[in-house]
Every structure is written in C-alpha cells, then in structure tokens.
Design goal:
Order of helices and strands: HHHH
Strand content: under 5%
Distance between the termini: 141 Å
Helix content: 55-70%
Shape: rod-shaped
Number of strands: 0
C-alpha cells in the first residue's frame, strides 16, 4: 500500500493559487444573468397571458364584438317585432268577424286587377316607360 500512496503523492499537483477577484466577478455576473433570465422569463409569461386576455377568443376585444353583435341583433329583433305587429293588424282587418270593407276592396282589386269606374287610370305607353333606357318624354302637349 505504501507504493500506491507514494505514486499518488508524486503525481499529485499542488493547486494553483485562485484569483479571488476573478472568481467573485464571474460569480456575480453569473448570478446577475440568472436573475435577468428569470425576470425575462416571467415578463414573457405575463406578456403572453396579457395579450391573450386582450385578443384571445374570450378576451376583451371578443367581448366588445359580442356586445356589438348583441346590439345589432336587438335592433333587428325590434324591427321584426314591428313588422309582425303591422302584419297582425292587417290580418286582423281581414278576419270574418271584423271585416274592413276598404281592406277587402283594396285586396280584391290587387288580386283581380280590377278598377272602380270612379278611379282615375293613367296608361303609360311602352316608349314612355322609364326602364326602356331613354328619358321620358313630357306628357303635356301630346
């Protein structure tokens, strides 16, 4: 055993003198970079979740879009209710128990293309028709 221990002592080197100022500055830089990395990582996580809270599927912008759509649909619903009420009034006038003669007369003329002899009827020739592409000629003086 003495031989092994003597060999190991012979090859054993004495440690060099360590520069304490150099190692302490390396340790400080390493600690600073580690802290900086952690803060950067935390800022990235916070930024990611902040952006998703603003622009995500359930974020602030999505809520504003949904509120706008709700307002549009409410106005459309009010218009549909008004139209329905108008049609219900017209249908009520055509019911047998409350038949309005004016409404019946108007509807019959419209469906049958009849006119009352007391009605004023204006006939327009095809050449005076505005859909022909030409301007209408004045009716006065013909």
């Amino acid at each position: 055993m003495t031989k092994i221990s003597s060999l190991s002592r012979r090859h054993w080197r004495r440690p060099r003198s360590i520069d304490t100022t150099r190692t302490s500055s390396v340790l400080l830089i390493r600690a600073f970079l580690a802290a900086l990395g952690l803060y950067t990582l935390a800022a990235l996580f916070i930024g990611y979740f902040g952006i998703n809270a603003y622009t995500g599927n359930r974020g602030i912008l999505a809520k504003q879009d949904l509120d706008q759509r709700i307002a549009d649909l409410k106005s459309e619903l009010e218009a549909a209710k008004a139209e329905r009420a108008r049609w219900e009034r017209r249908v009520a006038l055509l019911k047998a128990d409350r038949l309005d003669p004016d409404m019946l007369d108007e509807r019959a003329r419209q469906l049958l293309d009849y006119a009352d002899p007391r009605d004023v009827t204006v006939l327009i020739s095809h050449r005076d028709w505005p859909a022909s592409g030409r301007k209408r000629a004045p009716l006065i003086g013909r």
